[in-house]
Amino acid sequence: SAVISQKPSRDICQRGTSLTIQCQVDSQVTMMFWYRQQPGQSLTLIATANQGSEATYESGFVIDKFPISRPNLTFSTLTVSNMSPEDSSIYLCSVEVTGGINEQYFGPGTRLTVT
Amino acid sequence: GENVEQHPSTLSVQEGDSAVIKCTYSDSASNYFPWYKQELGKRPQLIIDIRSNVGEKKDQRIAVTLNKTAKHFSLHITETQPEDSAVYFCAAKVRAAGNKLTFGGGTRVLVKP
Description:
The structure holds 2 protein chains of 2 kinds.
Chain A: E1 4-7, E2 10-13, E3 19-25, E4 31-37, E5 44-49, E6 56-57, E7 68-72, E8 75-80, E9 89-96, E10 104-106, E11 110-114
Chain B: E1 4-7, E2 10-14, E3 19-25, E4 32-38, E5 45-51, E6 56-59, E7 62-67, E8 72-77, E9 86-93, E10 101-103, E11 107-112
Parallel strand pairs in B: 2-11
Antiparallel strand pairs in B: 1-3, 3-8, 4-5, 4-9, 6-7, 7-8, 9-10, 9-11
């Protein structure tokens, strides 16, 4: 498996501001993903963070709202821009461990509340 | 794209009984099916997975079965214990689609002592 950390673990932000969430992995991984989990809901993929190129966004998510960086194979950031209360959610990074099985593991999540 | 449906949404069982959660998927190209357990306030944890070339896999009290023809897979928990209470998510992956997991809606399992 992989040890995944996220910062911050939680934050309360005012509407109109932006928050950058960091994800750090203890080993190099090819695939990193960002998910959103709204209260009581399932996991929704926001985007795939590609090392050295622009992230690949899922339908309903755009780069201007959720810019992502992936400067190397162990680190990625997700920014939630111009926040509104609807952005209140848990944001999780996830990595796929390369190898024969390619399991996917999740970070501890960042609980964001927008007031 | 892939669509994964999960049933039931909630499941209440007596301690010691079995629990079964079922998922169906739409894309016949899917070839990897993991199950995650998420306790309150915690991250989803991978508990078991199955690949498309296998029909069943067991790990102690949990097992997963896969029916490729019918495009459905199930999680079976035997001899349930209170610590099995959590939300369980199934997922499916289409390797050709950029290694993305598509998740089911989740099942909230409550094991009553």
